[in-house]
Automatic annotation (TrEMBL):
Native organism: Pantoea alhagi
GO biological process per UniProt: regulation of DNA-templated transcription
Pfam families, alphabetized: Response_reg, Trans_reg_C
Species lineage: Bacteria, Pseudomonadati, Pseudomonadota, Gammaproteobacteria, Enterobacterales
Protein name: DNA-binding response regulator
OmpR/PhoB-type domain ranges (all copies): 125-223
InterPro entries: CheY-like_superfamily, CusR-like, OmpR/PhoB-type_DNA-bd, Sig_transdc_resp-reg_receiver, WalR-like, WH-like_DNA-bd_sf
Entry's Gene Ontology molecular function annotations: phosphorelay response regulator activity; transcription cis-regulatory region binding
Keyword Phosphoprotein found: yes
Length: 226
């Protein structure tokens, strides 16, 4: 059975979420303390984590940062009352997969849960190779020059998109739509932050550089003569 972890300190919200998701067929664990939530994450595997930002003892930001540092790449859906771009950028930079603002409609939350689970389970027989970069999709593995590169689930999807459309210039709004299923405002730098984080892992210490900026448009993955 698909397992979900909810870390939510608002008791009524947590109980309603747990009941609704269990009725939808999921096995759900609910905790209302940030530190307890992190302990659950580090001790066992969940298919999806629903994480509040403001929590007692340990905030959602810190939980996400520590789980990613510990190589836990489960998809994370943030629940937050904070509706500003800087918070979205912060969460994406730490490795969040999606956001839902409070108050929310349960039907929308359920749809987002299903989408994240579906994306995380998609396995294909595709293997991509560009220069010395190799992505093995079924094994969720990425290497460069034979060295394993650890990516978050969202970084993996972003790199897979760039590899799928190698040589094609991808506008920022298209990337945000296909990877995050969110239409970011054109004057935000959410996609730039995500690309910079990905570059730091697959390009900074290697040559040739693979991800290139197309000024005023977006990004492209290709081998260019240096």
């Amino acid at each position: 059975m698909t397992t979900l972890l909810i870390v939510e300190d608002e008791l009524k919200t947590g109980i309603c979420l747990k009941q609704g998701l269990e009725e939808a067929g999921y096995e759900v664990t609910l905790v209302n303390d940030g530190r307890q939530g992190l302990e659950h994450i580090l001790q066992q595997h969940y298919d999806l984590i629903i994480l509040d930002v403001m929590l007692p003892s340990l905030e959602g930001w810190e939980i996400l940062q520590q789980m990613r540092m510990a190589r836990h790449e489960e998809p994370v859906l943030f629940l937050t009352a904070k509706d500003n771009v800087s918070d979205k950028i912060k969460g994406l930079d730490l490795g969040a997969d999606d956001y839902l603002l409070k108050p929310f409609d349960f039907a929308e939350l359920l749809a987002r849960v299903r989408t994240l689970l579906r994306r995380n389970r998609v396995l294909s027989s595709v293997m991509y190779e560009v220069a010395d970069l190799v992505m093995d999709v079924p094994r969720r593995s990425v290497t460069r020059s034979g060295r394993k590169i650890h990516l978050s689930s969202k970084e993996f999807v972003l790199l897979e998109l760039l590899l799928q459309r190698q040589g094609e210039i991808l506008p920022r709004n298209l990337i945000s739509s296909l990877v995050w299923n969110i239409n970011f405002e054109c004057d935000t730098n959410v996609i730039d932050v995500a690309i910079r984080r990905l570059r730091s892992k697959i390009d900074d210490d290697y040559s040739p550089k693979l991800i290139h900026t197309v000024r005023g448009i977006g990004y492209v993955l290709e081998i260019r003569e240096e």
